[in-house]
Each structure stands twice: as C-alpha cells, then as structure tokens.
Design a protein that fits this description.
single chain; about 425 residues; mainly beta; four-stranded antiparallel beta sheet; 4 helices; 24 strands; about 10% helix; disordered N terminus; disordered C terminus
C-alpha cells in the first residue's frame, strides 16, 4: 500500500473502537462555570479569564481530595495538519505506528458536536441572587456529574457537591436552536434546595425516571434530617414530593426501579454497607436486605422479558459482579446470598442495562466503558475508550425512554473537560457476533 492508503485503512479500522455510533451533544472544554448575577457586588475580575477554576477533584469519602496546578495552552493561528497530511511525510511503518497511537481520536470519528462550553458550565442564577455571593464562595467550579437521567427534551444531572456548588440537582435541554451552549438550571427550582432543611433537597444522589414520567431522586439528607426519596412529576409542572422518609441518615448511593403490574419497588445501594435497601411504593415501606460479605455500590436491573429477572450488584472494593433474583427481594426477605457472575477488569461504579440485555459499565479511574450481553455467559467487551483519561468518575450514562444511550465524559486534566454524547444502542455489534 501507499502511505495514503495505509492511513485511510487504519483510520477506517480504528472506528471499531466503539460498539455504537455516538453523537456529541454537549462539550465543556474547561469545566463548569457559574454566571454571576449583576446584583452580586463582585468585581468583574471574578468573571475574567484571570479567575481560574478551583482545580479540586471532588470524590466520595473513600478518595482523597487532590489539587493540581492549572496549565496554560497556547494555540497557534496556523491550522494543525490532518492525520493524512502527516501520513504523506512518513514511511508506511511510521504511518502504522502514528495512526495506532492516534486511534484514541478514532472513537470520536463519527461524533457530531452539538455544544461546547468555552470554560465551565454556566449556572442560571436567580435575579435576586438568593445564593448571595458576597463572600466570594461561589465561582467557576469543576465537579463530576455522577448520575444522569433523561426524559423528553431534558437531561438531569446529580453533581458531586462541594462548598462552591449551591445545588446538587440540575437540568439541561437535550437540544437548542442557539449556537451558544445552554446554562445548567437548578432543578426543579432554586427554592427547593437547602441543606439541613428537612423538607428541601439537601444532598441528591441516584436518579431514575419511571414509566409515567416521574423522576425519582435519592436524597442522603444531613445530620439534622434523615435520608429520603423524592419524586418529581416531569409531566405536571415538575411538582416535587417526598414519598418516603427513612429512619436513618446515611450514604445512599444509587437506585433502580422495578415496576410490576401491582407494585413498584426501588432497590437502593448504600456505600460501604453490606446490604441494599428495598422500598415498596404502594406499601410506603422500606427494609434492609443483608448481602453478607458484599459491599454494594453499583446496581443494574435486567430487562423485564428476561426471566427470572435479576438485580446485578457491583462492589466498591472489588471487581466481582453478583446477582440476586428480584423475586427474593420483593418477598420481603431480610438476607440474600448473591450469586457470583464474573469479574470485571476494574472496580465498577456505574452499571446500566438496555432493553436488549446489554450491560454498560463504567469503572473507577478507568478511561473506558465495557459491556456484557447478560443473556450470555459473562464475557467483558470493549465499548468505549478515551485515551489518556485520568479521572475518578470519568463517565456518566443513562438511557432515555426511546432506548438512546446518553453519556458524559469528564476529563479533569485536559480540555475540553466535559462532553456529552448520545447513541442509538441495541443494534447488533461486534460483541454479539
């Protein structure tokens, strides 16, 4: 082959790096940003480029807070050469090496960018600046969007909290007619958020939308208020309601919904605990199911048409994947013995199963998402990868009601820091062949 043909061949081959064709929906090059209100008497310097983001990784309690020195990149006015232009000046062997190393970009070869944030996400502040900025505590911030849910034309994010973020639950539109990126909006409103006020959203965690358009929100609560579950009616003016108050205050993490003809159950993980919590909506009752020896972090529920239906459990301190039949959990049992399914290549923190039974899994501090066809014996497959990504929670994934997979990529060290993709999943892919 000539160098050009080798380049074309390898670039085409590298498109197999993912099992689906993603479209970029949003991209945040530098991190999240607040738009400061005019009423807040702060100097313009806080909005200038001289105000740098607080480069702090914000993790759960089991990970350290680290700080790095921001780097400055100077961009030349001269356009960068394309891979093919570079290839023309190389020998065939060098072309092969160059393009294989360059293949991390091939995962984005079919992406369509919809939005790009120049620096950080912009928070839509209220006109009265209820969250007063007189002490300068709220400014550009960087944090992981840990959980995500999608319904209709809106995307909902749970943000890892810190002192610079006044709200933990926000929303974005799935699309916009404007070329400018949209702002993130406190959801359902500013007034609903207040820490250590028990009838307010305090510290949200897991999110999921049910079949009738209600967003379920786990709320850890505070030392003054017990943990609770909210539902927000997305089809009725975003009406928010506390549907259950737990008898404890603790580190709730994730929930998945099991909707049956007669009853709706929520299965909830508790970080660092060897148990899961089961909640019955119709009975307004919750109970704890002990999982001996298994510290449950991530959860995923098999499709309704796969019987017996299984709840899959990932551990925060292990690569092992387990399952429990949901019939056992629905029955009110207080102890279950999960079955070992297999071992992932890393520790999972987020798992999701589509209607075809494919599980998508993100891992702590890993730059890839892997998949597994849950109707087959356990076999981990590559699904998506970003070269050089080094973040504690690099990805967030969610499915909408149409079966579209949405995914964020958070890159703490490089820009863009935030990107949002979507892809139609469920079509045959290399893992099914």
């Amino acid at each position: 082959m000539t160098p050009v043909f080798i380049a074309i061949f390898l670039l085409g081959l590298s498109s197999l790096a993912t099992a689906a064709n993603f479209n970029t929906v949003y991209e945040w090059p530098k991190g999240l940003d607040y738009e400061l209100p005019s009423e807040a008497n702060r100097t313009q310097a806080l909005r200038d480029d001289t105000l740098k983001a607080s480069d702090s990784d914000l993790y759960f309690e089991d990970s350290p807070v680290t700080q790095t020195t921001p780097t400055t990149t100077t961009f030349s006015q001269k356009p960068k050469p394309t891979p093919l232009q570079v290839a023309r000046s190389m020998t065939p062997f060098c072309i092969a090496i160059f393009l294989l190393c360059h293949s991390s970009l091939a995962t984005a070869a079919n992406f369509t960018q919809v939005y790009e944030w120049p620096n950080n996400w912009d928070l839509d502040w209220p006109s009265e600046a209820k969250w007063a900025i007189m002490d300068g505590s709220y400014y550009r911030f960087i944090t992981e969007p840990l959980f995500m849910a999608v319904y209709g034309s809106r995307i909902f994010f749970m943000l890892v909290p810190n002192e610079a973020i006044p709200v933990g639950l926000v929303s974005l539109p799935t699309s916009s007619a404007s070329a400018a990126p949209p702002k993130i909006t406190p959801f359902p409103s500013w007034d609903v958020h207040e820490y250590e006020i028990c009838n307010h959203i305090e510290s949200p965690k897991g999110l999921e939308v049910d079949s009738v358009g209600q967003l379920w929100v786990l709320d850890v609560g505070s030392k003054k208020c017990n943990s609770k579950i909210w539902t927000i009616d997305l089809n009725n003016n975003d009406c928010a309601e506390i549907i259950h108050q737990f008898s404890f205050y603790g580190e709730l993490h994730e929930l998945v919904l099991d909707e049956t003809p007669n009853e709706t159950f929520a299965y909830i993980s508790r970080q660092y605990e060897q148990n899961i919590v089961v909640f019955s909506l119709e009975r307004n009752e919750s109970w704890t199911v002990v999982t001996p020896g298994i510290d449950v972090l991530s959860l995923a529920l098999s499709p309704k048409d796969q019987e017996p239906r299984q709840l899959y459990l990932g551990q925060w301190n292990s690569t092992e994947l387990y399952s429990i039949p949901v019939d056992v959990l629905r029955s009110g049992t207080r102890t279950a013995n999960p079955k070992l399914i297999g071992n992932w290549s890393a520790r999972p923190y987020r798992m999701l199963i589509d209607e075809h039974g494919t599980m998508y899994t993100a891992f702590l501090k890993k730059n890839f998402i892997h998949s597994w066809n849950s109707s087959q014996p356990f076999l981990e497959q590559q699904f998506f990868e970003v070269d050089g990504l080094d973040t504690y929670y690099p990805f967030t994934i969610a499915l909408d009601q149409n079966g579209t997979l949405w995914m964020t990529v958070f890159d703490y060290e490089r820009k863009p820091r935030y990107r949002l993709f979507k892809a139609a999943v469920g079509e045959p892919s290399f893992e099914d062949s």
